[in-house]
Write a structure and sequence with these properties.
Helices cover 44% and strands 14% of the residues. It is built from 16 helices and twelve strands. The protein has two domains: 131 residues, N-utilizing Substance Protein B Homolog, Chain A (Orthogonal Bundle), CATH 1.10.940.10; 188 residues, Vaccinia Virus protein VP39 (Rossmann fold), CATH 3.40.50.150.
């Protein structure tokens, strides 16, 4: 039996992510090169789902297979994980999930492991879905195992949101992320999709139109990310500093004269290419460390700090991030302090992070010494549940990525 192209691509992606520490969003395009749109969609669903659910899948494989996952050969481990995902969380035919997983082991050149993989897959076919469905979720650690998150994430959300919302958030971020693009008003052209009712330039699409993307008519950007750009509030005639600008989604959304800073040379080049493609002639790219800016970059009317973070609000679109995530409050606070030094007296600083964690959100703002300007009246539907002067989008409530947004003022 041959292996379908979609499963081969998914297998290659899973193998690279867990055995070579590759990033899923970089490994998948290489593995899926040459697939048609239907096979590509299936491959991505299987690969990303397996990576997201790997903790739960490993638990099931060990419980029913009675063999530590860590002791398996890497290709066997990847094939069993992929097969287990199909059995537990998809509607793929059981025989296809079992047989093709076994064939992946054979194709990897491990003939002696074929019978073992076949035996494990048949045990999983008989009991995995019931085992996973019966896992408890009464405690943070139980829920983290059931929904496949690190314990610390389960404990964090349980503490900050309560059990019901934490569970809803875990479930939401195991589902496919919204497919939304931002219409680029700098260029003329028509793109099919459903306009969003809340975010002016957001367009819901079935898939990202690659031709429209190459032409600069659109930019893939979640509604929450677009909301952060809108909250900067920059207008023509203002000088704006974007401290962490690549790949440029927000920088090219802003009005005024924008200085877009990026520390990594490769990402700075990518930012320049994206700026040019989108026709954002108002954006000037600077390859520099935001924590050591040239002295002349100061007295801006507005500063955007779209800071590096744990990314706990974008786990639906970045499946491997939950296994890499770490909080970065010290870096975030340092960037806010740079913003406070480089904005003019009385100017605005917009702090945005794509995470759901008080340590990286309101605690960083509180430590900055900047004065919060309430966003509640402008965007009441996204008000932070505990601190309504801030915004907090929640994937389970708002059906978009999770973003914390605060607009701050430097003292006159």
């Amino acid at each position: 039996m041959s292996v379908s192209p979609a499963r081969r691509a998914a297998f290659d992606t899973v193998l690279r992510v867990f055995e070579e520490d590759a990033y899923a969003d970089r490994a998948f395009p290489a593995g899926a090169a040459g697939l048609d749109s239907r096979d590509r969609a299936l491959a991505q669903r299987l690969a990303y789902g397996t990576i997201q659910r790997v903790r739960t899948l490993d638990h099931g494989i060990e419980a029913l297979g009675r063999r530590p996952v860590a002791k398996l050969d890497a290709p066997v481990r990847a094939a069993l994980r992929l097969g287990a995902y199909q059995l537990a969380f998809s509607e793929v035919a059981v025989h296809a999930a079992v047989n093709e997983s076994v064939e992946l082991v054979r194709a990897a050149g491990l003939p002696r492991a074929v019978s073992f993989a076949n035996a494990i897959m048949r045990r999983l076919a008989l009991g995995l879905r019931d085992l996973v469905g019966g896992l408890p979720d009464d405690t943070p650690t139980d829920a983290a195992l059931k929904h496949s998150y690190p314990d610390w994430v389960g404990e964090l959300w349980w503490r900050e949101l309560g059990r019901e919302e934490a569970l809803a958030l875990m479930e939401a971020q195991n589902e496919p992320a919204e497919t939304v693009v931002r219409i680029n008003r700098r260029k003329e052209g028509h793109v099919e999709g459903r306009p969003d009712t809340e975010i002016p330039d957001a367009l819901h699409v079935e898939r990202v139109d690659e031709e429209a993307l190459r032409a600069g008519l659109i930019w893939p950007q979640s509604r929450a990310s677009q909301l952060a750009g809108l909250c900067v509030g920059s207008t023509e005639g203002e000088r704006v500093l974007d401290l962490c600008a690549a790949p440029g989604g927000k920088a090219t959304q802003l009005g005024g004269e924008v200085t877009a800073v990026e520390i990594h040379p490769g990402r700075a080049r990518q930012l320049e290419e994206n700026r040019a493609r989108l026709g954002a002639t108002n954006v000037h790219v600077v390859n520099a460390d935001a924590l050591a800016l040239p002295d002349e970059l100061r007295d801006f009317d507005r500063v955007l700090v779209d800071a590096p973070c744990s990314g706990l609000g974008v786990l639906a679109s970045r499946p491997d991030l939950r296994w890499r995530a770490k909080a970065l409050p010290d870096l975030q606070l340092a960037l806010l302090r740079v913003a406070a030094e480089r904005v003019r007296p009385g100017g605005a600083v917009l702090y945005a992070v794509c995470t759901i964690s008080a340590e990286e959100n309101e605690a960083v703002v509180d430590a900055s010494g900047l004065e919060a300007e309430s966003l509640q009246e402008e965007w009441p539907q996204f008000a932070h549940p505990r601190r309504p002067e801030f915004l907090l989008t929640l994937p389970h409530r708002d059906r978009t990525s999770g973003f914390f947004i605060a607009r701050l003022r430097s003292r006159p």
